[in-house]
Amino acid sequence: MKNTMSRIGASRNVTWSDVNFEERWVMLKTRKKRGGSEKRWKVPLNSELVKVLTDLKQRSTSEYIFPNQDNNHQRQYPRYLRGLCKKAGVKPFTFHCIRHFAATVAANKNAPLTAIQTILGHEDIATTSIYLQSLDETVRSTANP
Questions:
Q1: What topology does CATH give the domain 8-143?
Q2: pLDDT over threshold 70, residue 20
Q3: Is the pTM of this model over 0.85?
């Protein structure tokens, strides 16, 4: 999720046929609006994600990248993140927070706002702006000690 900035709902149903290793992209799909038509968009794969997906594909026995116990698509959201946060001793966060974080990191590395908008799958640039939080260097240096 960190590498694609995808919604958890979009990542649950990704199949191996949605991944193009040669051209390095993954096709994401969502029905964000109830009763709305399916929206599709391509998200580029970075080197880290190519490595992870290549390893997963070698071990996979399902058409889905993240299958449930029956090798079908996930029907519900994973519920293990809160437990992992507790085990790591960090304040619990959601999968959606990872999406916000990844967009913020991209913006702080001077990625064009329109590119971030495309990867997030937003139709309106104003929605993308809401995602971005300033990680000002002054604030960052204050947190380090």
A1: hpI Integrase; Chain A (1.10.443)
A2: yes
A3: no
